[in-house]
Write a structure and sequence with these properties.
heterodimer; A: alpha+beta; 16 strands; 31% helix; globular; disordered N terminus; B: Alpha-Beta Plaits; Sulfite Reductase Hemoprotein, domain 1; Alpha-Beta Plaits; five-stranded mixed beta sheet
């Protein structure tokens, strides 16, 4: 049995009973989506057949890697070939194109439709909205269709994202576009630095990947602290403000302010007078975690001296275990053209480039060489906000200028 | 010559007028009902209607979503970091008709506030070359089973589930309330021909985090010290000759209790509670049941406002294993490089 397909070779339709089962149930089905694309693309039909085979064999059927690309770029396209090309010839080549997404994943329908038309013409018609890095993932096309795909995408105003040992497409939360918690303009910073570092993103030249994620507040809706080599998390330096009328309204509406707000405050800096319904804060004790703001946002607002905390080094498990990002700058003002931030990024990249082994993320390098070396290397002053607590051992790497040398007539030792 | 380095499109071109006017001036917001947020600013209010998607979608799906945005939202929409769609409109009267239109098309409305949001996940057998399991299939099965919690916002706190099909964790599952993780359990099978032809031997040896890979100069290849290997698969990324995929022994581990938000407690890693479940397509019933059980015990025992990890840390992990009946084994005790911090160094604990 064969399906006649208008814009491609005939493709044998293999039965897909396991995948058909995944069309049942209330959650929208990716199988239905592959079948929809299969009505127009034999690639999508063969993808379905190949996936059914994986469900039978309990193993993946994609060969290892594959270098493909488009003119002028060292990345942005992921090569993929199946190990069953005879049975599924239409996914013999099934490469992915990463398309850099607009800040905050905002779109109008005109832009989305133009991307759909391009991908229907040149590819499988399947996409991920979006991939883990934040890019639009155009899933599956042949080697000879890569350049035409890119040409049309470029013509429509799009560009490729990052892949390989490069700056990966920066991404950010919705920020000031729709959130009163945004302590800096995440959308603008993301747009600005992506455009500033297109060369670093499109022409891989580093030891390994480098990710920058930007969240407007400590709720961290894009998980910057968990997965970005450089995490930029909005914060403020002064004190929260409390509207007592709004507090009373919360109490009238039944909120247990003492239990759900004060007792859950990690620093116990909030005090609630149940008689007067007055909520006060000891500002110096507040660690700006966002809990009270989240719970009582009609009444509690963040401070007005706003900026971001810069953290470094997050990554997932492979190789040396997962790391969460570490604080390296407790507070930085974040205003265009972001010169201070860009200078810091470039110093970090230089130090990493100079010292890292191949495939060593910045967090692993800092762990190997020590935070002290990193801070001296990039010229950042040590401050207590960088650690939960100081070291418990006396194994200090003293610097030469801190130690009295043989023959020194008069001590001019610099106090650490 | 085609223009290169356009950079991403300017987001400003895609902002609806109400967002342009209220940009950076938003004052407050409310949760109208599950899946619907309203934000208030000096120029007026904006409704966001959040809708789940399977992430892997056809261009016709996107066009259908565009039709809805054209009809109800003046052509504007956005996507979220958890693969949801958000329809954006200043017109209050459009909210319910839009929800009805989404429901009629099988698009679930929800995922806001104290609900379970969409599962972030990786490619799995759809498109990855190192997977230990599928991703889309498991996600579909789990979301079908927990569907009601996407449309309810009366959970103790939000619930974020993530799925990664191997230890590379492209989905950053390591800080999720519940993480579903593809794992290998056997040492790589060495294909010496492929290793010789395709691999840079010193890099292959250096990539192993436990120094299990040793040079084999006579053979112009490598050997693996089997007892040192913990099956991470990093060597397969370096060389296709280190065949790590094993249909009979690959499967799924469940880790829980991670978070990325700084609210109340510091961001934290998810911790392993079930070291292995088998790969059982098409619906992975063991994994679906395990996730449901953890969710239900959390719902029953957590206090208002507690994320999964905050609840477990309050009651103690030893209590978690008692309450869930999940067997505790030698596999749960860390023996990798940062293990010591997880050992109990106090004589105070529960049963």
């Amino acid at each position: 049995m064969t399906d006649k397909l208008e814009n491609g070779p005939t493709s044998p339709t293999t039965p897909t009973p396991q995948l058909d089962d995944l069309e049942q149930g209330p959650w929208p089905s990716f199988v239905t989506e592959i079948k929809r694309a299969g009505e127009k693309s034999p690639m999508a039909t063969d993808l379905l057949g190949l996936l059914e085979r994986s469900f039978e064999d309990k193993i993946g059927h994609w060969k290892h890697g594959g270098i493909v690309g488009v003119k002028g770029y060292g990345g942005g396209v992921i090569g993929r070939y199946t190990d069953l090309p005879e049975e599924f010839p239409n996914v013999k080549e099934f490469h992915t194109v990463r398309v850099s997404s607009p800040s905050g994943w905002f779109y109008n329908t005109k832009a989305l439709r133009s991307m759909c038309d391009i991908w229907e013409e040149h590819g499988s018609g399947l996409t991920n909205m979006h991939g883990s890095t934040g890019d639009v993932i155009l899933l599956g096309t042949t080697t000879d269709k890569l350049q035409p795909s890119f040409d049309d995408l470029s013509e429509a105003g799009f560009d490729l994202g990052g892949s390989g040992s490069a700056l990966r497409s920066p991404s950010c939360c919705v920020g000031p576009g729709r959130c009163e918690y945004a302590c800096y303009d995440t959308l603008d910073l993301c747009y600005d630095i992506t455009h500033a570092y297109l060369d670093e993103m499109h022409r891989p030249m580093w030891p390994y990947k480098f990710k920058i994620k930007m969240s407007g507040c400590a709720n961290d809706c894009v998980a910057a602290i968990a997965r970005a080599d450089c995490s930029v998390i909005g914060t403020w330096r002064d004190t929260i403000s409390i509207d007592q009328d709004a507090v009373r309204k919360y109490v009238e509406d039944g909120l247990d302010v003492q239990t759900l707000v004060c007792d859950r405050c990690p620093t116990r800096c909030l005090h609630f007078n149940a008689l007067t319904c007055e909520l006060t804060v000891d500002g110096a004790d507040c660690s700006r975690c966002m809990h009270c703001v989240n719970t009582m946002h009609h009444a509690i607002k963040q401070g007005s001296e706003r900026g971001a905390t810069i953290l470094i080094g997050a990554k997932s498990t492979i190789v040396k275990s997962a790391f969460l990002s570490w604080v390296i700058v407790p507070f930085m003002r974040m205003e265009a053209p972001y010169t201070e931030f860009k200078d810091l990024l470039e110093r970090i990249w230089d130090w990493w480039d100079e010292h890292a082994k191949t495939r060593e993320r910045i967090g692993e390098l800092i762990y190997r060489l020590g935070m002290g070396n990193f801070l001296r290397g990039v010229g950042l002053p040590p401050v207590p906000q960088m650690v939960f607590r100081p070291r418990a051992n006396p194994y200090v790497f003293w610097q030469k200028e801190e130690i009295e040398q043989e023959g020194d007539e008069k001590s001019e030792v610099v106090a650490p | 010559m085609t223009k290169i380095d356009n950079g991403p499109p300017n987001y400003r071109d895609f902002l609806p007028p109400i967002i342009k006017e209220n940009y950076g001036k938003w004052e407050d917001h409310s949760h109208v009902k599950p899946g619907v947020l309203v934000h208030y600013g000096p120029a007026g209010e904006l409704f966001s209607i959040r809708v789940g998607s399977p992430r892997l979608v056809s261009v016709d799906f996107i066009r259908e979503v565009c039709d809805l945005a054209d009809e109800f939202c003046d052509g504007y929409l956005r996507f979220t970091s958890r693969n949801n769609i958000e329809f954006l409109t200043p017109h209050a009267e459009n909210v319910d008709p839009l929800i009805a239109a989404c429901t009629a098309r099988g698009l679930p409305v929800g995922g806001t506030g104290n609900s379970m949001s969409n599962i972030v996940h990786t490619q799995g057998w759809i498109h990855c070359h190192t997977p230990a399991t599928d991703a889309s299939g498991i996600v579909k099965a789990v979301m079908d089973d927990l569907y009601e919690y996407f449309g309810r916002d009366d959970l103790p706190n939000k619930l974020t589930i993530a799925m990664a099909c191997c230890l590379n964790m492209c989905g950053a599952v390591h800080c999720s309330d519940i993480a579903i993780l593809g794992v290998h359990r056997t040492v790589p099978r060495l294909n010496h021909d492929v290793i010789r032809k395709t691999s840079e031997i010193p890099s292959l040896i250096a990539c192993c985090p436990t120094a299990a890979i040793r040079p084999d100069p006579k053979n112009k290849s490598v050997t693996v010290v089997e007892e040192r290997c913990m099956y991470c698969g990093n060597c397969f990324t370096m060389s296709p000759g280190m065949e790590i995929m094993d249909a009979r022994n690959d499967g799924i581990a469940i880790l829980i209790g991670g978070k990325v938000s700084n609210a109340r407690t510091a961001p934290s890693f998810s911790r392993m509670v079930i070291p292995f479940l088998p790969n059982t397509p098409p619906r992975w019933p063991e994994t679906v049941a395990a996730v449901r059980q953890i969710v239900e015990v959390w719902l029953e025992h957590a206090r208002e406002g507690e994320r999964v990890g905050e609840w477990v840390e309050r009651i103690g992990w030893e209590r978690f294993f008692t309450l869930t009946g999940i067997p505790f084994t030698d596999k749960h005790i860390d023996d990798y490089i940062f293990s010591r911090e997880s050992f109990r160094t106090t004589a105070a604990f529960k049963y």
